[in-house]
Amino acid sequence: MHDLTPQSGRFDGPRHQFAVRVYFEDTDLSGVVYHANYLRWFERARSDMLRLLGIDQRGAHDAGEGAYAVADLSIRYLRPAKLDDAVLIVSETTEVTAATCRIRQTAWRGPDKLAEAQVRAAFVAPNGRPRRQKREWVEAFNTVLIPATPGPSTESPA
Question: Could you tell me the pTM of the whole model?
Fold first, then answer.
């Protein structure tokens, strides 16, 4: 038996921070991170942020209540990450409604912003129709809410 557990990142105030390392499998033929891998990193960071907030996605799914689905996503790539880089994914909840949440996510390598995404996730019933999130979940999101500001995030976590 081992005592290692997967890391879920941490909150620094209202911002969730999630560290990833660039491995060879993350890169393309040119030696930079393949663009779709940023989406994987952002998904992992969002999922772990929810876990730390006490939002039990698996429990809701298993109980037939529903699941989060990405309803809208835009991403801007600014600089490439490369093999062995340490990348920090910062997630900020910028809006919460009865059935959706909007999260801004930024990938950083030290003070350098690599990519930024805006994600709107909707809670949907098993039939695929939007459904209200649990009240406790909305309250949890509100504890880390950072109202959206126009334009891209410029605050480096470094």
Answer: 0.91
Domain extent for 98: 10-142
Phi and psi at residue 138, to the nearest 5°? -60, -45
Active site residue 28: yes
Query: What whole-number distance in Å separates Cα of residue 27 and Cα of residue 29?
Result: 7
Strand 86-96 and strand 10-12: the pairing is: unpaired
Nearest to 140 by CA among 19, 5, 6, 16: 16
Cα–Cα dist 155/79, whole Å? 16
CA distances from 47 to 31, 129, 150, 153, 155 (A): 28, 21, 25, 21, 22
Residue 4 domain-assigned? no
Bridge partners (DSSP) listed for residue 90: 17, 106
Q: What is the pLDDT along the chain (158 residues), one digit of tens a residue?
A: 667 777 889 999 999 999 999 999 999 999 999 999 999 999 999 999 999 999 999 999 999 999 999 999 999 999 999 999 999 999 999 999 999 999 999 999 999 999 999 999 999 999 999 999 999 999 999 999 998 776 656 577 76
> Looking at 28, 56, 62, 84, which residue is catalytic?
28
Computed on alpha carbons and rounded to an integer, the radius of gyration of the chain in Å comes to: 16
Which CATH number does the domain housing residue 119 bear? 3.10.129.10
